[in-house]
Design brief:
This protein is an alpha/beta fold. It is 37% helix and 17% strand.
């Protein structure tokens, strides 16, 4: 007689239900696993056999066949160890079936029967709630993560022997109820705006980028403060909502970057990959697809320092996610989609030596070198960046000044107010910030005064702006108007937005 228990497979960011079936028949001892398993699942045979034997019970004799259904879904990873072991114990009559109704199992087994943590627990816990199942059994290190989901029972498991006693009613495991955590604002003061001397225009551009979710490119000589400005960006972004926190936490859980001590990520991500990063590491993918840097920066900041030093094909892979907010990784077995709604902050030098147009130091690059260096960034990619900013070198009087600078907390309040305006404006549309507006939203929400329309017309004709650049100009103008608490876009808002267009 075959038996069945439930587990799950994580595909992209979502979990899909997997039925783990076990059947025991007469014959020489074997443990075949079928159902399109990968090598890690195949190796579960040895881990499960040793784990059961070292948990105080005998492994059932004969041919034990395990099937993972549906068979057309690729099964990857080691989290099937625990459900396979439980299915075998149930088929062998070692545990009772009464405690397995509407329960999902996941966890990796050690040879001594202890249960190790796995990735993707939050996605599976959300599936358990969606299917209205009763409980989920996970490694103890993953219990706090699963408990983020309300209305389910989470059973932390230390070892297989403990689980056997629980299923047989000898010693019950203590469960923790899933719960929705309150929103907690957490900010770091290590990179506060008050520590940046001067650069008032740069700070204003950062505030606009934070308020509307716009992309920003900073160009300036070495040491002008570009990196410091970029690192201060998270300090002026408003706290994530609970839905955003769960969304980001799910990505980090699947990527295996979630710490057991911090089950819920509350601070907005700040990712800063090196310029030698490959395209797969940046956008995601691989033999076993995982989220890349752009997805790990979801709802946060992706900082690309030395922008021009990145490989050309790596930068070109940013074009689709910058436009759509998602990245689609296609492989022969199928396609996986990861979210990628991030603020791109990029910085670069104006030339190889870094001192082009510097009033104090002479540039040593030839015209050919300068042109070649600046051509590393394609026009279509630059067209997707809303704000282009020149960051000049600051003189001694500004760098050493002791005057009181505006703090990040003060700027953050203005950004938060502007974002609340946008949330009310886009309520029910699945849009958070102005940068995500569609063409329909532009028609409905970017109403401009006659003088502003005339200025936009002149800019499009004289600067030869593309349709995309025109739309992005409207979005930036809308954000500046929101920061000024203005319902309509005025000529002053458009004029400021035009200052940040690439010349």
């Amino acid at each position: 007689m075959s038996v069945k228990i439930l587990s799950a497979a994580v595909v992209g960011l979502e979990a899909k239900l997997v039925e783990v079936e076990a059947d025991i028949a007469r014959g020489l001892p074997r443990l075949p696993i079928v159902g399109l398993p990968d090598m890690a699942v195949q190796e579960a045979r040895d881990r499960v056999r040793s784990g059961i034997s070292n948990s105080g019970v005998d492994f059932p004799p004969g041919v034990v066949t395990v099937n993972l259904a549906p068979a057309n879904l690729k099964k990857e990873g080691s989290h099937y160890d625990l459900p396979i072991a439980v299915a075998i114990l149930l088929a062998g009559g070692i545990v009772s079936e009464s405690n397995l109704v509407d329960s999902v199992f996941m966890g990796e087994l050690s040879l001594d029967g202890s249960v190790r943590p796995v990735n993707g627990v939050l996605s599976v816990a959300l599936l358990v709630k969606q299917k209205k199942f009763r409980s989920i059994y996970v490694p103890r290190s993953n219990a706090a993560e699963a408990a983020l989901v309300s209305s389910i029972k989470v059973f932390p498991v230390d070892n297989l022997a403990q689980l056997i006693d629980h299923l047989n009613g000898i010693h019950y495991l203590k469960f923790c109820s899933g719960r929705s955590l309150p929103r907690v604002e957490m900010f770091s003061d290590q990179n506060d705006f008050s520590l940046i001397k001067g650069q008032e225009q740069s700070k204003r551009a950062m505030e606009i980028a934070a308020a509307g979710g716009h992309n920003l490119l900073m160009t300036g000589p070495p040491g002008s403060g570009k990196t410091m400005l970029a690192k201060a960006m998270p300090s002026i972004l408003p706290a994530m909502s609970l839905d955003e926190s769960l969304e980001v936490t799910k990505i980090y859980s699947i990527a295996g970057l979630l710490s057991p001590e911090v089950p819920l990520l509350r601070q907005r991500p700040f990712r800063s990959p090196h310029h030698t990063t490959s395209s797969v590491a940046l956008v995601g993918g691989g033999s076993f697809p995982k989220p890349g840097e752009i997805s790990l920066a979801h709802r946060g900041v992706l900082f690309l320092d030395e922008f021009s030093e990145f490989s050309r094909h790596v930068l070109e892979s940013l074009r689709q996610p910058l436009e759509d907010g998602v990245i689609t990784v296609s492989r022969a077995a199928g396609s996986i989609q990861y979210p990628a709604r991030f603020i791109l902050i990029a910085s670069q030098n104006p030339c190889p030596c870094g001192f082009l147009n510097d009033p104090r130091r002479s540039c040593t690059c030839s015209p050919t070198q300068i042109i070649k260096y600046q051509k590393r960034i394609s026009g279509p990619l630059l067209d997707r960046i809303d704000l282009h900013l020149s960051v000049p070198r600051q003189d001694y009087s500004k760098v050493s000044g002791s005057g009181k600078m505006e703090t990040s907390a003060t700027v953050r309040q203005r950004v938060k107010k502007a974002r609340l305006i946008q949330m009310r404006r886009f309520s029910g549309r699945g849009i958070y910030v102005n940068a995500e507006m569609s063409a329909v939203c532009l028609e409905n929400f970017c109403q401009a005064e006659p003088r502003a329309l005339e200025l936009i017309k002149q800019a499009v004709n004289q600067l030869y702006l593309s349709g995309r650049a025109y739309h992005r100009l409207l979005k930036v103008s809308r954000t500046i108007a929101d920061l000024g608490d203005s319902e309509k876009i005025t000529a002053e808002h458009v004029a400021e937005a035009l200052q940040y267009r690439a010349q």
